[in-house]
Amino acid sequence: MNAKRLHGILSRFPRQRILVIGDVMLDQFLWGKVSRISPEAPVPVVEVTRESFFPGGAANVARNLRALGSAVSVLGVLGDDHAGKQLRELLEQQGVATDGLIVDPNRPTTLKTRIVAHHQQMVRFDREQCAVVPPQIERRVWEHFESSLPSVSAVIFEDYAKGLLSQKLLTAMQRRAHQARKITAADPNSRSQLRYAGLTAVTPNRSEAFAAAGLPYAEPADDVLGDEALLRVGQALLRTWKPRNLLLTLGEHGMCLFRPAKKPYHIPTVAQEVFDVSGAGDTVIATLALALAAGADPVEAAEMSNHAAGVVVGKIGTATCSPDELAASFARNRC
User: Fold this and answer.
1) Which of 13, 70, 251, 318 satisfies CB 3.0 to 4.6 Å to 54 for a cystine?
2) Do the Cβ atoms of 258 and 234 come closer than 8 Å?
3) Among all residues, which ones are annotated catalytic?
């Protein structure tokens, strides 16, 4: 993609409004240093020097969209707790519309705490309740979805297997968004096995793709387009999910785009250094959906997603990519 075409697509990002639906969470980072081993057990002692909080899960997808310049609203469920209030405040500070964040007093806000020392994640604690939301909460989610749909360019379904997206609710939303001719995208989760139908784009990673296809996992081959197991999985998911675009994220092997009646298209990684892959999948689906909404063709959108992911994995913590960083990555990798 040449610079003029790239900047044309980026210039249309602020005109889009994206609705993100899914499991929202709060990411807590405790940063510190290790200088000794505990006398109580053979574990490092981390001296905490600072603490930071970021939107996580579906909320991180919304944060990525705002960093790229689009308008965004998020639809999810919070607990009636301090973490929920903190997450709402963080999103509002970043310009994300939060009127779709519904409070369920009977469940906690999902909180993930990571301890990082010397640029290395040491351990993570998860505080959450993975249970289907009650019918009254599901009704409120549907009502907000219906009222929001006319004003958005695209809908992203972000499942983390925490209980917001039941198959019944997802199917109804997919059908309604299709009727409204909206761009639709989903990032699946191997633990929930929701069935997606006829979306514009789906972005599983390698392990999620094998699990969804019901095939035994196979280690990657160096030649992506010669990876027979991966190619079988891609074709199986095209038949099962019937997406217009299936973008498999493959870590150090980049990405592979599958489309009906077209040959698979391999996109090599552009990551210079990898410090932290936390949230990279969120960046991929945010960039892909936004680029498609802004008029990019599927290959262009996939390449933009690949560059955005390359930017965020070079940062520590749950990170985002700006339009300037995206353009700089393209310029750097054209040299």
Assistant:
1) 318
2) yes
3) 282
| Separation CA 21–CA 144 (nearest Å) | 10
How far is residue 161's CA from residue 238's CA, in Å, rounded to a whole number?
A: 22
Which residue type sits at 211? A
The secondary structure of 141-180, three-state, reads HHHHHHHHHHHCCEEEEECCCCCCCCHHHHHHHHHHHHHC
DSSP 86-110: HHHHHHHHTT-EEEEEEEETTSPPE
Domain boundaries, the chain: 3-334
> For 155-183, what is each residue's pLDDT tens digit?
999 998 898 999 999 999 999 999 999 99
Rg, the chain, Cα only: 20
Domain 3-334 sits in CATH 3.40.50.720: no
Write down the pTM of the prediction.
0.92
- Please return the burial class of 271, using the count of CB atoms within 10 Å of its CB with bins 0-12, 13-18 and 19+: buried
Would you give the DSSP letter of residue 252?
G
